């Protein structure tokens, strides 16, 4: 008999008569100690993740029918019911809350301090006991909060569903990009099998990106508590990752099925699904620091013509794009060259082909941390 259940959570209405719902699909034993949480569309305009979940449902339905799911697997196919309703001028927006312009994948809850307070004199001598204690305590902290604002409620609900998971995958996509993965530094190299299986060209590591995206809200608790209580064994017990599934128009059944298959194999290898997975494919490129990513910005307004594409290796000083301004006199004045300040891998470029000074045109992953990055390591 299958174990699959589908539940809908109702969000508090922000406007009269307009309550939205969050749908949660569960497979496996809901009391099992090992748990996976996968969501798509926290940035609701990013379609590839939805399609990957569609293909993953097919694979998990099959595994469930064969009684092969060990532990518990949660899927949140549409993680942002607020953003998914943001149609404006014939385009789905979905990245920023219309109410306060806050990015839906920023400023998630950081409950480390509340957990730490409740852990005083309670930590044990074995990692296993502490993992159980911390998860239970995180659940208590979350249970003591009751946000009423719709977006705050949603963030709280997502973390409540994910806080005790061993693996959290937050599926996103970039503008025009190769597959890349964001992870907490302490999770590397243990999470090599994830990046390798997904075929990620780039893995970006940070202990704290400065803006608390959802993956960090799940995983950072662990190393922050370990730092606060150095005398007790506290492992990084949640492998949470933001997975960027190429670019926003990279939507096809072939790719969706391939990505879902890769996630399935990763979960199988990690023991959440029975069966023997093949050997992990080789990692394409070693992880690099998130602080080493150069955001290349336009210096002038004009039409952007990219000379390089995502996946290209770039030398320091190499021209990656030209900004063309037809109002200027003389060929040399009409073209502004956009150069890379570092050596690295070009992994994302903007889909818009019109530049404005200061706008991010491209992202290059370099090996060395950059000095002038400041506290916020992600784009808005
Ligand atoms: Zn996103």
How would you summarize what this structure contains?
This protein is of the alpha+beta class and 380 residues long. It has helices at 48-65, 112-119, 127-143, 150-162, 192-198, 214-228, 253-269, 331-334, and strands at 5-10, 21-28, 35-40, 72-76, 87-88, 91-92, 167-174, 176-177, 180-184, 202-206, 239-247, 288-289, 293-297, 302-306, 313-314, 319-324, 335-339, 344-349, 354-355, 360-365.
Give your account of this protein's structure:
By secondary structure, the chain is an alpha+beta fold. The protein has two domains: 5-286, Aminopeptidase; 290-365, OB fold (Dihydrolipoamide Acetyltransferase, E2P). It has eight helices and 20 strands. It has helices spanning 48-65, 112-119, 127-143, 150-162, 192-198, 214-228, 253-269, 331-334, and strands spanning 5-10, 21-28, 35-40, 72-76, 87-88, 91-92, 167-174, 176-177, 180-184, 202-206, 239-247, 288-289, 293-297, 302-306, 313-314, 319-324, 335-339, 344-349, 354-355, 360-365. The protein has a nine-stranded mixed sheet with strand order 1-2-4-3-7-11-9-10-12, sandwiched between helices. Strands 8, 13, 15, 18 and 20 form a five-stranded antiparallel sheet that branches. It is globular and about 70 Å long. Bound molecules: zinc ion. Zinc ion binds at residues 43, 46, 105, 172.
